[in-house]
Amino acid sequence: KTTTKPPPMPSPLRNSKFFQSNMRILVTGGAGFIGSHLVDKLMENEKNEVIVADNYFTGSKDNLKKWIGHPRFELIRHDVTEPLLIEVDQIYHLACPASPIFYKYNPVKTIKTNVIGTLNMLGLAKRVGARILLTSTSEVYGDPLVHPQPESYWGNVNPIGVRSCYDEGKRVAETLMFDYHRQHGIEIRIARIFNTYGPRMNIDDGVLLAISLLKHFVQKPGTQTRSFCYVSDMVDGLIRLMEGENTGPINIGNPGEFTMIELAENVKELINPNVEIKMVENTPDDPRQRKPDITKAKELLGWEPKVKLRDGLPLMEEDFRLRLGAPKMK
Length: 330
Ligand code: NAD
Ligand code: UDP
Known about the structure:
Blueprint: H1 12-15, H2 17-20, E1 23-28, H3 33-43, E2 48-54, E3 73-77, E4 90-93, H4 100-103, H5 107-128, E5 131-137, H6 164-184, E6 188-193, E7 196-197, E8 215-219, E9 225-227, E10 229-230, H7 231-243, E11 250-252, E12 257-259, H8 260-270, E13 276-280, H9 295-301, H10 309-324
The chain binds nicotinamide-adenine-dinucleotide and uridine-5'-diphosphate.
């Protein structure tokens, strides 16, 4: 066990009769890809009330349309770089653009979201005595010199590169989480998420834009590897981490490792035999390899991914095709 249980914190509203029965859960970034699937799962439990705070930078109301108007659901347009004054029992703090094209678009804002946003959510957790889970990232390992990456590896990150706003931002967010835990006794959970895919992923997103059905752009050299976790497995891992007794950080990802060329070949075989595979120039600091060591998740959370890439890709393709209004290619 890595958690030292902090003293219970009084919250006048939580103690009132009205709020006692339900668990109030805030999901920041809940209009995004992983966040909206997390909301779907949390809403299945009738004891949960879910509040989403999102500024819609990369997320959309559309991802949550089935819950809008539901009595146990609330959606707030809110930027986490501003303080949020509400009463909740748990906070899943996801707000942050995840894809390189979006987090590099306004790097200063990305840092603010990671640092000031996490600070604000920790402040909220402290005020109301809520447990808070941060979705950190495998990017904290940078271009890793240890493979696969265990949580004990401190990483190889460029502090001044074009990806640093995200990588270093998340590293500071993790530091803030542990400092609030040690200094203020906040109950924290840190998930280090590895590449995740599935329906509702942004259509303009990095590698799995692959499924753009007509062309698959492989950034050179194409031998760089990633490990892709299907979103339902990811959500299951996040909830187990939140409900368990370990602070983390814990890697959550699928250890099945593929080169970007292998991924393209899978797309060709499973989705579209006519897809044109095109080699293009890469962007700076692209990690050469990435694969989670999930020993800790298995031991401490009893979690491991169930969905194989071969089974997940077609599920994602269907969603992309419907959204793009494209015909089936195979
Ligand atoms: P996403 O971009 O689909 O979702 C992020 C959400 O946060 C969006 O709805 C966006 O509008 C919102 N947001 C961004 N900045 C905000 C701000 N300042 N205030 C309020 N809302 C804001 O990304 P995702 O893939 O769902 O990622 C969710 C979390 O998981 C992120 O923290 C990301 O860093 C982490 N993560 C994701 C992956 C992945 O492969 N998808 C990998 C590692 C870590
Ligand atoms: N990539 C690719 N083709 C693309 C986009 C990305 O081959 O059209 C590669 C990219 O070089 C990287 C991997 O896919 O090695 C994953 O990229 P992504 O943008 O999804 O995010 P990252 O894992 O780098 O954060």
